[in-house]
Amino acid sequence: MAMSDPASLLVVPLLMIAAALASRTTARWVAVPVVVFELVLGVVAGPDALGWVDRTPFLAQLSQFGVLLLFFVAGSEIDAASLRGRTGRRAWLGWAISICVGVGVGFVAEPGFGALIIGICLASTALGTLLPILRDAGDLGTPFGSAVGAVGTVGEFGPIIAISVFLGTRSPGMSTVVLVVFAVIALAAILHAQRRPHHRLHRIVESTLHTSGQFAVRCVLGVLAVLVFLALQLGVDMLLGAFTAGIVWRLLMRDADESTRRSVEAKVDALAFGFLVPVFFVYTGVKFDLRALLDAPLAFTVIPLIAVALLLIRGVPSMLAAPDGASRRERAAVGLMGATALPIIVVATDIGVEHHAITSTEAAVFVGAGVLSVLVFPIVATAVRNR
């Protein structure tokens, strides 16, 4: 391991603690999501600033586990009813508008393969980032939370499919066939989890809740590992496997005792939001290419413009999914939440740089806009809605 690894292993947990304390402290005046502090502290402590944390393979691996758990929790939190009926149709319509406009803007700015990268970035929503915010605000299960959940689900699910089909190593036709194969297998797993009772699983989970066996947590990791492995073997984006694993686990536990479900959720949340997910956000800040922006100072001026583009291209169409009878302020809050993006932007720009479709500076600008959206839009949405 590199010489800087011991320092990184010390600094990253301290940054995670500092982020949680900072979020709690500022809550007296304004509700700033903890992920904001995790991102900012990661940038400050990264190699392009203070240099306290280096980009190491070990942290990169932990970060990947973190994003997988983030998407797993997103899948387990999804209410299928919110994706049907009026809310679901309008969420898909909004995303269709966003991806068409985003790709159109992309062709104007960067013709060719880069246009797809830009379009996917501008049509994404950070559901995994929004879920902790909705949960902390007590909005999960409310009409507003269901609308944002539907917008976020479509805003992550749609781009993941687009990445798997258009940005993979196979041709779009072959990628579509492989995606259909994965969808059939995933659907079979979902139907199996939904139709058959799982009382024996529930009994094992209940009997090991307070023992060293912790079967529930091990089973969660097993379901996640199987579907992510399947996705990787088929050449589908692993985030799609993690998201599907969350849906399967939710269905496996749907008939369990409520106290058991809550206990299992608490344990998974502790593993995810207490450990691996913060590592992902801190490391995203560490990876942020600040030097590329410093070498091109004018690029800083483009970041807020991209954030505005996210608001117009992704946020405005997201307002279509606002709850029936919602006020203008609540519609605006749904739009602001829908325009909050980051994880998909990180994934898409990494692919774009790898394929030389966009430059590292352009990637840094889009990631910077994603960070800015996470910094600003949820706070403004909360203020607008609570005013």
UniProtKB/TrEMBL annotation:
Residue ranges of every copy of the Cation/H+ exchanger transmembrane domain listed in the record: 19-382
Superkingdom of the organism of origin: Bacteria
UniProt-listed GO biological process terms: proton transmembrane transport
Molecular function GO terms recorded: antiporter activity
Alphabetized UniProt keyword annotations: Antiport, Ion transport, Membrane, Transmembrane, Transmembrane helix, Transport
Membrane-spanning segments: 58-80, 92-109, 115-134, 146-167, 173-194, 215-232, 238-256, 268-286, 298-320, 332-351, 363-384
Keyword Cytoplasm: no
InterPro entries in the cross-refs: Cation/H_exchanger_TM, Na+/solute_symporter_sf
Name of the protein: Putative solute/hydrogen antiporter
Organism whose genome encodes this protein: Gordonia malaquae NBRC 108250
